[in-house]
From TrEMBL:
Protein origin, superkingdom: Bacteria
Protein name as annotated: FAD/NAD(P)-binding domain-containing protein
Residue ranges constituting the FAD/NAD(P)-binding domain according to the UniProt record: 97-408
SUPFAM superfamilies assigned: FAD/NAD(P)-binding domain
Organism from which the protein derives: Nocardia rhizosphaerihabitans
Matches recorded under Pfam families: Pyr_redox_2 (PF07992)
Keywords (A to Z) from UniProt: Flavoprotein, Oxidoreductase
Catalytic activity, reaction form: [thioredoxin]-dithiol + NADP(+) = [thioredoxin]-disulfide + NADPH + H(+)
InterPro entries: FAD/NAD-bd_sf (IPR036188), FAD/NAD-binding_dom (IPR023753), Ferredoxin-NADP_redctase_2 (IPR050097)
Length: 421
């Protein structure tokens, strides 16, 4: 099975030597792809791979190794080092801004575009790559203005260019660890010691992927088991059976996408019907594609293999009957949890960890509301004045790209109102 690579007639400036079943290599593959960095991928066992490693003093066990066209070599230790090495913008250029956006998904990017276009000195911090979960989507069909659909990668690229056009500063690979607010400004403390301050902030950190909880599955993460990574891994799956776990739109979109290259796509759904969580248009698409086989009322009960995933144990939820099937590729789209653990106790949350904002603060907290001012909170304002929330990180959100974009732009309007006071 061939690793991913750039077309031979379009030689990239970067070569990655790494084993396709290495979790570290999978992480690099995803990072480079999501940040639109073209590369040629070479297995260390291939003649070219052996030659490149030997020429630079590495052994097969040293991979992954990145080799640039100018001769620079890197054995990456973490995402920040990798981001700096490939030339991404990783350090804020100023100590103070008007607007600080944390998170580069649809809500964060909308906030950056609207903030910068309306004259606010705007900086956005993103840990991994611009686009968030939407950037990993193979096809978004119900986004207004795109009747033929649009991939998450294309939508992300357009948003990135639009933000740059208006002067928003996008900083990649900084992980926000804590937030401190005063009457004058908001400061985010990042891993590594970097601090970024602004007069107001918008939290758009979205949600973190849930992982499968079944014996053996964790052992094969990055070695046959992947989360929300259909676009980066699909070229490796050509002609194979692909198992997908999930019953919402992200899983359905992935199934449709994989059906164009895989021999067969088996969609495993815990519910008894796709209609429980999936949009009707997507259910109709799946029903029309013979390569997609839907198994409702089914869950993963275990995984096993050697150097990579080789077998899955499936369990029928109603009867408890189990079945072992050969499997090399498993992609899970089973939802996410709000990325709010980095925020302090001053932020009120609901019982699932989502940030409470605006009128929801009083609705949920009642007489014990932690809101500290005499004025009521603005619509998307958290319990920390001057700090707003938008998108999947916010309680009672719609979990849709269009809704996140709307909230990101609305948050900027509210920031203007806050700054005028």
């Amino acid at each position: 099975m061939a690793p991913t690579s750039q077309d031979e007639h379009d030689s990239p400036a970067l070569t990655v030597v790494g084993d396709m079943w290495s979790p570290a290599c999978a992480a690099i593959r995803t990072f480079l792809s999501r940040n639109e960095i073209a590369c040629r991928w070479v297995q260390p066992s291939d003649p070219t791979g052996r030659e490149l490693l030997a020429a630079h003093g590495f052994a097969a066990d040293d991979t992954p190794v990145l080799i640039a066209a100018d001769g620079r070599v890197l054995k990456p230790a973490d995402e920040e080092q990798l981001a700096q090495w490939v030339g991404l913008h990783t350090t804020p250029s100023s100590g103070g801004y008007d607007l600080l956006v944390v998170g580069g998904g649809p809500a964060g990017m909308a906030a950056a575009v609207y903030g910068a276009s309306e004259g606010l000195h705007t900086v956005l911090l993103e840990r991994w790559a611009i686009g968030g979960q939407a950037g990993l989507s193979s096809r978004i069909e119900n986004y207004l203005g795109f009747p033929d659909g649009i991939s998450g990668a294309v939508l992300t690229d357009r948003a990135r260019r639009q933000a740059g056009k208006f002067g928003a500063e996008l900083v990649i690979s900084l992980r926000a660890d804590a937030l401190e607010a005063t009457d004058e400004d908001v400061t985010v403390h990042c891993a590594g010691g970097t601090t970024v301050s602004a007069r107001a902030a918008i939290i758009a950190t979205g949600a973190t992927f849930r992982t499968l909880d079944a014996p053996g599955v964790e052992d094969f993460t990055g070695r046959g088991v992947y989360y929300f990574s259909a676009l980066t891994e699909a070229p490796l799956c050509a002609g194979s059976d692909v198992y997908i776990v999930g019953g919402a739109n992200s899983a359905g979109q992935a199934a449709v996408y994989f059906a164009s290259c895989a021999r067969r796509v088996i969609l495993l759904v815990r519910a008894e019907s796709l209609a429980t969580e999936m949009s009707a248009y997507l259910i109709d698409q799946i029903a029309s594609i013979p390569e997609i086989h839907v198994r409702t009322g089914t869950e993963i009960a275990g995984a096993s293999g050697g150097t990579h995933l080789e077998r899955l144990t499936l369990r029928h939820r109603r009867t408890g009957a189990t079945e072992e099937v050969p499997a090399t590729w498993l992609f899970a789209f089973i939802g996410a949890d709000p990325a709010t653990t980095w925020l302090g106790p001053g932020f009120a949350r609901d019982d699932r960890g989502y940030l409470l904002t605006g009128p929801d603060i009083a609705t949920v907290a009642g007489a014990d509301s932690p809101w500290p001012l005499t004025r009521p909170p603005l619509h998307l304002e958290t319990t920390v004045p001057g700090v707003f929330a938008a998108g999947d990180v916010r309680a009672f959100n719609a979990h849709r790209v269009a809704a996140a974009v709307g909230e990101g732009s609305m948050a900027v309007m509210l920031v203007h109102e806050y700054l005028r006071d």
